[in-house]
Amino acid sequence: MIAETVCSAVAVAGLGIAAVTAYRRRFLSAARIAAYALVPLGLVMTGVVQWLADTAFSPTAWAGFGVLGCAWALFATTRAVERRRGGGGTRKERKAAARSARPDAVASGASAPSLGPAASRPASRPTATDDFSDIEAILKKHGI
Q1: pTM exceeds 0.85 for this model
Q2: For residues 53 and 3, is the Cβ–Cβ distance under 8 A?
């Protein structure tokens, strides 16, 4: 009962301030103030204030909040430990995941490499003089 009265008084005071602000020709600010002032009135009319007041003075509700806090702390702790260990699940599941993630040295269907004529001669590499001659040509082209 007291909470509803206080919220209604805050709404009326906010609407009064909005009226004064609108009188000063600051309509955008007045509309924003009126919107904020109507929120407590809407909460009273929907019954949220009564529900909150009943919850705030209920020992059962506070015990429920305590239980929820403990649950949250357990979730956070287990998640932190899981991240520190580097994965979740049982030891058996982690080993199986590590085995499946490890690449095999040779694929099961791989054949022997071909040793044709291309494999017998070494690949030709460009020499340092070839690289510098290209650079010199580019510099000459730009007049440097």
Answers
A1: no
A2: yes
